[in-house]
Amino acid sequence: MKAHSDIKRIMFSARQIQERVKQVADEITQDYKGKRPLIAGVLKGAWIFVADLLRQVELDVDVDFICVASYGGGRTYTSGEVTLLKDLTLDCKGRDVILVEDIVDSGITLSRIKEMLLERKANSVRIAALLSKPSRRKVNVEINYLGFEVPDEFVVGYGMDFDEKFRTLQDICVLKKEAYSS
Ligand code: IMP
Ligand code: MG
């Protein structure tokens, strides 16, 4: 791991992540046999998860990305407002979509995106999330494929950031409170 004084501890090592990602990929491969799902990665946090997951999924897939923001710079909780910064480029009408997200916290981001894709007449929308913090949920959102359930601690690494930092850490790490509560 790249040493960093703001990191409290490793929650999941790169190796643990890879093992779990493979299991999640196998579930998706089974469930979508004979289909060609549209994978919609949620930027920016999910970029590494999408890359690792899809290289383990044994299906033909279309890959696209949507970029939303719900945190203002330097915050660790959602503002409740989800702003669409970059839309999908592919048409999701009639498609079986799998939304791929790094972490489900309040659930607001994913429930908004899912609602939007269903309004656009996607045939189905399922959710694959690497992490979920159930204790922080504000709206109910069904996670169809989940990597790990985590406690209410702010995590970074493996694509996830705090104020755009720490995304390239290989492990999923807990950030020291002092790093964001100053
Ligand atoms: P939600 O709308 O509250 O579910 O927020 C989800 C988004 O907030 C996720 O896609 C992440 O980008 C971000 N987020 C939530 N918790 C964390 C965390 O612990 N570390 C980094 N990003 C987080
Ligand atoms: Mg995210």
In short:
The chain is 21% helix and 29% strand. It has helices spanning 14-31, 47-54, 108-119; strands spanning 7-12, 38-43, 62-69, 83-86, 96-104, 124-132, 145-149, 155-156, 172-175. The strands form two sheets. The protein has a six-stranded mixed β-sheet, sandwiched between helices. Strands 1-9-8 form a three-stranded antiparallel β-sheet.
Could you walk me through the main structural features you see in this protein, from its secondary elements to its overall organization?
- With 182 residues, this protein is an alpha/beta fold.
- It has three helices and nine strands; from the N terminus they run βαβαβββαββββ.
- α1 crosses α2 (47-54).
- The chain is globular.
- 35% of the residues are buried.
- The mean pLDDT is 94.
- Inosinic acid binds at residues 45, 70-71, 78, 101-109, 154-156, 160.
Architecture blueprint of SSEs:
Blueprint: E1 7-12, H1 14-31, E2 38-43, H2 47-54, E3 62-69, E4 83-86, E5 96-104, H3 108-119, E6 124-132, E7 145-149, E8 155-156, E9 172-175
Parallel strand pairs: 2-3, 2-5, 5-6, 6-7
Antiparallel strand pairs: 1-9, 3-4, 8-9
Helix pairs in contact: 1-2
The protein binds inosinic acid and magnesium ion.
Overall pLDDT confidence: 94
From the spread of the alpha carbons, the general shape counts as globular
Strand segment tally: 9
Structural class: alpha/beta
Please tally the helical runs, counting DSSP H or I stretches of 4 or more residues: 3
Task: Tell me which ligands are bound.
Answer: inosinic acid, magnesium ion
Uncertain regions spanning at least 5 consecutive residues: none
Largest sheet: 6 strands, mixed
Strand order of the largest sheet: 4-3-2-5-6-7
Beta-strand residue fraction: 25-35%
What is the string of helix and strand elements?
A: EHEHEEEHEEEE
**Rg from alpha-carbon coordinates:** 16 Å
Proportion of residues in helical segments = 10-25%
Task: Report the span from N to C terminus.
Answer: 25 Å
